[in-house]
Structures are given as structure tokens and as C-alpha cells.
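Model the whole thing, not chain by chain.
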Amino acid sequence: MATQAEHSSTNRRDFLYVATGAVAGVGAAAVVWPLINQLNPDASTLALATIEYDISAIPEGQTVTITWRGLPVFVRHRTAAEVEEAKAVPLSELKDPETDEQRTKEGHEPWLIMIANCTHLGCVPTGEAGEFDGWFCPCHGSEYDTAGRIRKGPAPKNLVVPPYEFVSDTLVRIG
Amino acid sequence: MIGVAQFMFKTKFIIAALAVVAGLGVVSTQAAEGEAPHIEKQSWSFGGIFGTYDQNQLQRGFQVFREVCSSCHGARLLAFRNLSEEGGPGFSEAQVKALAAEYEVDDPSAEGGRRPAVAADRWPEPFASEQDARDANGGALPPDFSVLAKARGVHDAFPYWIFNYFTAYQEGGPDYIHALLNGYHEEPPEGFVLPEGKYYNDYFPGHAIGMPPPLSEGVIAYEADENGVTLPQTVEQYSYDVSAFMMWLADPHLASRKQTGFAVLVFLVLFAGLMLATKRKIWAGIEH
Amino acid sequence: MSEHSTYVPGSAVEKWLDDRLPIIRFSKEHLMDFPTPKNLNYWWTFGAILVMCLGIQIVTGIILAMHYTPNIAMAFDSVEHIRRDVNGGRVIQAVHAVGASAFFAALYIHIFRGLFFGSYKAPREILWILGVVIFILVMATAFMGYVLPWGQMSFWGATVITNIFSAIPLVGNSIMELLRGGFAVGNPTLNRFFSLHYLLPFIVAAVVALHIWALHVPGNNNPIGVEVKDSRDTLPFHPYYTMKDALGMVVFLIPFAWFVFFAPDILGHPDNYIQANSQVTPTHIVPEWYLLPFYTILRAIDFNVLFIDSKLGGVIAMGGSMLCLLVVPWLDTARVRSGSFRPLFKWFYALFVLNFIGLTYMGAQDPSVPLNNILGKVFVAYYFIYFLVILPVLSRIETPKPLPTSISESVLGKAHA
């Protein structure tokens, strides 16, 4: 039964099957991607991914908590004493060594901007508390210093500094 | 044999069906059509399967909306950022930021409860409440513009509405709005009793509209485009532009949707062709 | 048809699985080897197309539910949020909305195919009844889904349809309030419709499973309506019908995509882009096209019959139209299944299809126009006469054309003609 003609038609058939299958695969992938992508942050959420905040109204020694990407963010106007205290700590004493300069912007040292979630399990620490004059987390007792660095307790890392920059002396852009 | 006979029967039957429906449609629409005025369909850049918005037109339309309409009509679903998004009027992000800063929005967390708007904010409402809006407009409520272009349409008589399925005519809203804005008469026709504080319009259902003619020649100063051409500052041009803007406002992703659609259709036709060939190969030699 | 099982587990693992959960055996018997008449035409692909439609609606629906807010203050804007802000939301929402129409288009073709080829006749009555149950469930699902965007048509559609129940004597009003969760359609109504709209498709899927089970007991009907006699009449489902059905699905997606991408709003009504307002009814309130035939039947009874007032009469007529479908296996007692061999039936059937199109058309027309009113009543009358008079009478008086003795004979005859 198997003739030459049939043999070549078998090849053509195999090619057709592969081509159809490949196109079906491309189509399936093209359908699946939007079904997954819809889970990503939508345009209204992304529009708030970068915010600008005017810090001129925050007096020295005060903290304002603002919302950025749905997270609480501390904007702290530190006193000169607090800055001094933070700079005086030797790195060897730190669990997560970072200098105060690394956590602030040059020329804007009094300003400390950090995501206000404890790096242990996400609670919001209480300000101007604890034995390091920084923050104290009420959940499991982590303590941070005046630069928001972890000094004591179960938290493994310093409070996270979000990406930000000073647009002018009084305006910060976060995100 | 049976298949063919059946097919013939079906074809005859479908033709008969169409004829009957056509007859029916003509009879009943003639009976039902009374005074519905004919609305002239415009040529829109966003019509048809390759349609896209004309950026310059959307910018002019936005200008009309901002300078005239927005004093009474809201657009609560419009965010400032939309004005710089793809497929829209194409303002730059800096322009949008500057524009937003000219407006104030409510923000309970801000000092005094108000702050300058940012790009992410929605277009502020012109009135504090529905009652305020009615009080300021002789009891009538100026409708929100957000999806208004899709909430209005042109009623096509039979059989023309059937053709719309094949031409994908979706521009009834802007056609109606354009007609409405050009449909004012200073005096109602003989014998029409116009209620106090109403205006006569050819296209408004019932003809007595609460909105005074909003546009008049020269009320908006169009700027010259990059070629130094300034479009005529007429009611006709203003209404054409603002209708296009409202269509964009109601359907901001129209252009990308149509582009995707074209790719999808090409893909499906190709795929169907391959499937047909494969199916034939598999069924080759089977009597069925 | 497990007696035909040819599955031999290929490995020790398969054997182990087969002894515990014979899923491979089941798939092989019911999806791969299932003997299917070789003469099925493309009208038979709509069953598979409907499974696809249900799948599309469930997948897109679950996604929409992730972004939708079932609250009367936010529902309208949340649908717009999906269209404007959610990644790809414009298209996903359009697929779901157009998908409802596509679902019904396929559903009607599937039902009319069954009515022509006598697919409801013994031994397939249960199969048919399960199909009618699916049809009713899908209508309920679609209706409740249409309420969710909370536009003017949503609101007034919900008002009118829930009002139907108030026609029931004595307890009608209480039932209506029970359904609405209030004296008028409001937030409780929207919330429960959302909940039920999410639930019902899964019940539909379960009934579909029963429907397919009931199909796999007697096997498929076919265009000549002569039962399968031996293996020469059949082909294994795979690859022959998997491929044919898949082709049907892809072709079906072409007009589907046309509407989704180029005219997503054309099948809807502009008034539904106005947020629901309980104080103003739109001047021209019509249901979606797929419910229009039954809407015409509901409206046609505008007169009292004895102690039954017109409102209850309309509801009874609408219920009766469903009942006719349910009992058609016992109304049409003709022994020949396929309409192809029934010279008289053919013409009454054709008229029935036209009549159904007429019923659909009249549902959107103004019934206060005398001509529309009369035509509507004529169409409704024929709908019932077809089921209650024509089918039973034809069964007795019609002489069918001679039937082929088997599918393979008919197929060979066609090939040599």
C-alpha cells in the first residue's frame, strides 16, 4: 500500500500538523498573557507610584506619616541633636551597618524618610520611643535609633528608605 | 445528496427569512417612526476598523470643554493623567502637571481639606452637589460627560441598523452631540409652546432643552497649528471638535482596541485556514 | 459504553492509577475513542462551541469580579474603572459582554438544530430536558449579569423582571420583595444578583456535565436520524471530531472578535451608559436581544382571560413557552427523527424559525402601534400552535420519505451521487 506519493503526503501532513499546533500555541500564549497581566497594578494605582510632598510645613522634631503606594511613610524633621547622635554611632555596633549619610540626602541631613513598616513583620513602630531615641515596635519589641537603624529586637534590617529625591529644598519626590 | 438538499433548503429558507424580516421591519418602522429627526452622520477620524483619534482635534475639543462646557458639566471619570496617556489628546506630562495645579481638589488629609490637584486626580466637579447643580441651571441637571458620548445614539431605521453591524458604526453618540449643538433655533416653530426657561432644539427629545445654546462663533480662540493654519472658529467646528473629545472621554482605549483587533482578526483567519487544512487532511478518505 | 473499553494500561504506574482512579480510561473512552456517527455536519459543532463560550464567560467573569464593586454607589464607576484603568480591562470586559451574545447565538443554533433533527426523541428525552434546564439557567445568569453594571437598563430590567413574580396570586408581592430584598430594586438586589451571577455558571457547568453524560449513553443523534448500527457508521471522537469541533470554534471566534474589538457596544443599549436612576425610566426599555422572543410572549397577553388578569396571563404564557420546549419529546411522536425526511414538517419548521425571528424583532418594537401589537400576537400564537397542534398532528398524518437503512449506506449514497 505504501507508495512514494503517500510517503510525501505524510511529510506534508506532518508539517501541517506542526504548523497548526505552533500557531495554536502562539494564540494560546497571546490569550493567557492579558489574563495574567490584568492582575498587575492598574493605571490608577501606577499614577500614584510617584508622589510629591511639600515638607516645608513640618517643624523640627516632628514626624508626618504620609501614604505612598499604599504604605505608610515617615517624614521626620530631625533635630540637630538627633543627627549628631546618629552620626556618633560606630558601625561596628550595628546589626545592619549603614552610615547616617547613606540614609539621608546630602545637604538635607535633618530629613529622614523611611517606609514605616518594621522590617520584622510589618507593624508600624512608635516614634521617639525606646532606648535609642528612635522608634519602638509595639509588636515584638524591635528598637530603632534616630537614623531608623535596627539596634535591638527581632527585626533583621534597618527601616527601609524608599527611592526619593529633593526636587527643591521644600519638595520631595518619592518613588 | 441529503446534505446538498438540506443545504439548498437552508439557503432558500435563509433568503425567505431575510425577505420576511425585511418586510416586517419596513412595515413596523414606518408605523413607529413619527417625528424622530434625521441626524446627519459625520465623518470621524475614529470611525471604521482603522480609526484613531486625531490628537489636534482632541486638544481643540478639550479646549472647548474646558473653556465652555466644564463650567456646568462634570467629567468625574476623567483623570488629569488621561490627557497625556497614549491614544488621547497627547499633552506632555509637564503640561498635564501644570494644568492640574491650576485646579483644587478635596483631600481630607490636606490642610483645610483642599489641595492643588496632581496628575493622578480626577477632574473636579463643577458643583458641590446635585442640588447645587440644579439650582444653578433652572432645575435641570447638566449630565456628566464621562461616558455621555456612549449614552447617546442615533436611531437608524430598518434596514440600515443591520448594516451597522458590518461597518462597526459606533459613532452615534458624537453624531448626536454634534447635531444637538447645531440644532438650536431662536424661535420655536409655529404652534410649538416652549416652556419658560427652555430652548428649542431640533434634535433634543421633545425639543425643549434646558441648556441655552452653549457655543457661538468666536467664543473660543483656537491657536494656529504647527503649519500656521487656524481652523474656523465656528459653532460647526467647535461642536465637531468637542464631540470627538467626548467620544475619546467615553472610550479612551478605542485606538489600541482597534489595533489589537486587527491583529487578532488576521491571526484568527490564518489560524482558521490552517485548521481547515488540517481537518481536511484528517478527514481525507473518510466517507461522511 | 464501558463495555467497549480498549484501554490497556501501558506501564505499572498507569496500572496503579487505573485501579484507583481510572481517569485515563475514562478520558480515552469518552474523549478519544467515543464512537461518533461519521455523518455529523457543522451544526453539530455548536455543542463544543457552547462549552467554549461557557469557559470564556467563566474565565473573564472571574477576572471582572476581581475589579468590580457590587455596591450601588460604586458599581457603575467600577465597571468604567475596569474599562479605563485595569490592564487590558477594556478588552476583557468587552469579551464578557459580547460573550453573552455569542453564547446565546450558539445556544439558539444548538436548540434549533435539535428541533430540526429530532434530537429530543427517544431515547434522548433526558438529554433534551437537561438542555432546556441549561437554557433557562443561562437566561437567568445573563439577566442577573446585565444588572451588575448598574446602568439605567440594568436597573429597569431588574425592576420589570422581578415585577413578573408579583403576578403570582396571593404570594406574588411577598415573593417579589423577597427577591429584591426591599420594596424596590436596590443595593441588596445588586449584591445578591452579583452573588448568584457568580454561582450560576458553575451550576450550569455541572448540568452540562450531566447533559454530556446523558449524551454518551445513547450516543449522538445525526443528520439522518437513523441510529448507529455498527462500527462502520462511526468514527472515534478523536481526532475526527476534536478537529472538526476545534475548527468550528475558531471560525466562531471570527465574528466574536469582530464585535469585541470593533463594535463592543453595538449589541448593548446606550441607556445603560447612564447610571441607574430610580426616578426616571428610559423612554424605550428593551431587554438584550437574546431575551426578546420571550419578552414578546410576555407582552402579548394584554387582555384578561376569565379570572386571570393580563399580567398573570403574560407570565403564564412565558412559562408555557418554556414548558413547550420541555415536553416537546412527547408532543412530536413522529417515528422519523430527522426533518430531512419529513416533507410537511420541513415547511412548518421553517415557518417556526421565521416566526421566532419575528418574535425577537417584535420584542424591540413599540407594542402600542396597532400593527406591531397584532403581529406580536400572531407570532406568539404560532409559537404555541407549532408545539401544541402542528407537531402532534403531523406525527399522525405525515408520510415520511424512505429512510436509509444505515448511516454508512447514506454516506456512500451521497459519495456516489
